[in-house]
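lol forgot to send this yesterday, sorry. struct tokens for the thing we talked abt
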């Protein structure tokens, strides 16, 4: 199950050095709602990766710091650094390919 990040919990996850995937979304964003189950499926398939969602309306620090300008945007971190980015509604295979590239 994907976590529900806040700016603080997302920052802690990134700083842990573990692989982290963050889905930036908002309740009013149709494509974000459609991407939600895809991110959940990714979380189920990769239990050793910290995967979660961050609502940009409630938490905007991490989004601003990483230049998230459009949603949905999925960022992939490893060793505390941004490694990959996916913008827009994408398929599970696309997210998996980016995740595999950082592992």
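and heres what i got for the seq, position by position
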């Amino acid at each position: 199950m994907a976590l529900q990040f806040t700016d603080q919990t997302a920052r802690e996850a990134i700083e842990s050095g573990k692989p982290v995937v963050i889905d930036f979304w908002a309740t009013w964003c149709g494509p974000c709602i459609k991407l939600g189950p895809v991110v959940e499926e990714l979380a189920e398939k990769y239990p050793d990766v910290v995967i979660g969602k961050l609502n940009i309306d409630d938490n905007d620090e991490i989004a601003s710091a990483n230049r998230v300008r459009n949603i949905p945007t999925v960022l992939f971190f490893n060793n505390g650094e941004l490694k990959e980015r996916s913008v827009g509604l994408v398929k599970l295979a696309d997210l998996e390919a980016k995740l595999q590239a950082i592992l």
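The longest helix spans residues 30-45. anyway ping me if u want another try
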